[in-house]
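Postdoc handover notes: sequence design on the structure in folder B. Input tokens:
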């Protein structure tokens, strides 16, 4: 947190553009690097569980390895995500305290339950699927349930972020969950691009990745247009470090999409495309986070937003 600089003289107000002595109306977010990292890991985990559940619907022997990888990513991703949340909270018992209540109106409380459900079902699917008799049926049921929890895990962070008073996040509330969900698909698809896969697995993951990349790029354009309805609110996506990060994320994802469309791709080009898409998805989460911090520091963004609403 930046140090408070004392005034040497009172700021002079601008006619027609008032603020409270140029002081920000809102406190900036206290989240550090672990929360944007959680957005990415949680999105990758959730989208992988969705992919595993979809592949399980038309299960066959040549998809068994893909489904198992999805469940492994779910198990490991939920473990890492829990660690990141506990690191942010400071003490493990604070995460457990969030599970003492069930409050559907609180995105943060629901996020704790979603992560716990995804962890439990992905672990059950990983341990029981493929065994004999009732254990296999329970494992398959866990796989489908993990897909439902995974879809929520991939998108709820967009709801959580936009359910705030920070102007840029609030103005993007209609599209931010879609952006995070589509970016989660890109994250999962690009991660699988770097694995050695059969032709059937490549066909499935390539389709999943392509849908995610196109949806992510489209959602990014829509989000920038929505927040720029109030020009002052949209500035963090066009200027400064947050603007560079935002543009860089779109360029990396677009580069990955171009490589994905090349015919007869080699193993090296698939890895390159996977790395570009992974970096783009990760940078997108940090860009949204940093843009929100910049928006909260802008003394006039909230006033301009309220004047438009009024």
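Designed sequence:
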């Amino acid at each position: 947190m930046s140090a408070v600089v004392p005034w040497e003289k009172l700021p002079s107000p601008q006619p027609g553009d008032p603020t409270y002595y140029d002081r920000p109306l809102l406190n900036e977010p206290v989240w550090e690097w672990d929360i944007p990292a959680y957005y990415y890991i949680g999105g990758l985990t959730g989208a992988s569980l969705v992919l595993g559940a979809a592949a399980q619907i038309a299960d066959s022997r040549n998809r068994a390895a893909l489904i198992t990888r999805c469940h492994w990513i779910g198990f490991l991703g939920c473990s890492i995500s829990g660690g990141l949340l506990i690191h942010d909270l400071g003490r493990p018992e604070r995460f457990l305290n969030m599970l003492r209540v069930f409050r559907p109106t609180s995105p943060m409380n629901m996020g704790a339950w979603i992560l716990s459900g995804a962890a439990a079902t992905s672990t059950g699917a990983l341990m029981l699927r493929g065994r004999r008799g009732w254990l296999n049926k329970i494992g398959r049921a866990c796989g489908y349930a993990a897909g439902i929890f995974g879809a929520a895990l991939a998108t709820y962070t967009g709801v959580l972020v936009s359910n705030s008073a920070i102007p840029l996040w609030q103005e993007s509330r209609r599209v931010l969950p879609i952006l995070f969900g589509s970016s989660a698909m890109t994250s999962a698809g690009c991660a699988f691009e770097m694995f050695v896969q059969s032709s059937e697995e490549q066909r499935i993951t390539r389709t999943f990745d392509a849908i995610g990349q196109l949806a992510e790029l489209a959602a990014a354009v829509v989000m920038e247009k929505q927040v720029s309805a109030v020009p002052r609110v949209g500035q963090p996506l066009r200027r400064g470090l947050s603007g560079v990060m935002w543009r860089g994320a779109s360029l990396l994802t677009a580069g990955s999409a171009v490589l994905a469309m090349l015919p007869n791709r080699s193993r090296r080009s698939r890895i390159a495309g996977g790395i570009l898409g992974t970096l783009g998805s990760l940078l997108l989460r940090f860009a949204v986070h940093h843009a929100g911090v910049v928006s909260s520091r802008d003394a006039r963004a909230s006033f301009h937003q309220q004047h438009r609403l009024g």
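Context for whoever picks this up: The chain has a mean pLDDT of 87. Don't rerun without checking with the PI first.
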